[in-house]
Structure formats: structure tokens, C-alpha cells
Amino acid sequence: MDAEALLLTTAFGHVINEPNIEAGYERFASLTSCAIVADTFRAAVTACLRDQLIREPIRLPDGALQCHWHLELTAKGVGAVRSLLGAGA
Length: 89
What we know:
The protein has 89 residues and is mostly helical. 56% of the residues lie in helices and 10% in strands.
């Protein structure tokens, strides 16, 4: 499974809500037990964001003093994951 597909399927089944992308990567790595390096993870996030498969990950919640990093699928991303999972079945 390529990095983008792994990112999407992980976001489909898990909540990743961390203080920054580095912590988001660590959470992703712990969930997947996969040897995707941080640069590959960042490239996959960029590609998925460009293709509108995930929402903007950097957010400043109301009342927060600093931004947080979230991995959340868009409706298009959910459809892509369903296609991936259906293709793998």
C-alpha cells in the first residue's frame, strides 16, 4: 500500500488530533506500525490535501492559544477509502 492510501485508510479508522505535524506523524506511525519516514508522510499529507481528500490539518480551535494538527477525511476522501477497501476485498 502506498503512503497516500495508508494515510487515508488510517484516517478512516482512527482519530489523529495532535499539537503539531511531528506528533501527528508519531501517532500515525504508532497506529500503522509501518516504516514510512516523516518526509514521505508529509508528502502524502500534501498530496491528499491537494486532491481534497483531507481537510486542512492545521486548525486554531475557538479559545485555543495555539494551533492543533488534525487528520480528517473529506467526503471525497471517504469515497476514496471505500474504493480502496472495496478493491482490496
